[in-house]
Design brief:
The chain is α+β, with helices and mostly antiparallel strands. The protein has a single domain (about 1-20, about 25-170), classed as Phosphoenolpyruvate Carboxykinase, domain 3. Helix content is about 30%, strand content about 20%. It has six helices and five strands; from the N terminus they run αβαβαβαααββ. The protein is globular.
């Protein structure tokens, strides 16, 4: 049964994912830099327009296990999804990707996450709202900030890690 589910996930990966052997997913996820001329990059880049923040890279996250859980949950709940943003410091990026944004495992969560007394990560509807929320409590250093662009199921109560999936990592230059 488990092998059937895993096989089904690997047989139904998104068409825009890089084809890689299954054994490459030792750490559960892989990162693929998007080229500046790719359709995905051109769609994402304008979402991060801010004079003092310059995008240094956008990487697609490929995590078939997280993707499979998300698709099963989406089908089970039959709800719409939305795009949301989650902030992590560069040092916490591997933890966020491996542990599906469980900020309790971060070495240095943003202050807003410390105030957020649930196990659920803090999501924002826009990049600007993310910056505003964090910037209320501390200076946001562009070279330290990574933003995860995610799909999240709408209208779910009692959210679980199956209710969101990380699609992209956006990193910024140190210079403002």
């Amino acid at each position: 049964m488990v092998e059937t589910i895993i096989r089904s996930v690997f047989d139904n990966l998104p068409a825009d994912w890089e084809a890689v052997p299954e054994e490459m997913y030792v750490n559960r996820y892989l990162l693929f830099p998007l080229s500046a001329d790719s359709t995905q990059y051109k769609q994402l880049r304008p979402l991060f327009s801010r004079a003092n923040f310059r995008v240094s890279s956008i990487k697609r996250v490929q995590n078939p296990f997280q993707h499979g859980r998300y698709l099963l949950r989406k089908r089970m709940l039959n709800v719409e999804e939305e795009i949301v943003y989650h902030a992590v410091r560069r040092i916490d990026l591997p933890t966020a990707l491996q542990c599906t944004c469980d900020f309790r495992r971060y070495a240095r969560p943003y202050f807003d996450d410390i105030r957020h007394y649930t196990k659920d990560p803090r999501f924002y509807q826009t990049f600007n709202s993310l910056l505003h929320s964090i910037g209320t409590f501390e200076v946001v250093r562009p070279g330290e900030l990574c933003v995860l662009v995610m799909n999240k199921l709408k209208s779910t109560t009692g959210m679980s890690q199956c209710d969101y999936v990380i699609n992209y990592v956006v990193e910024f230059n140190n210079t403002m």
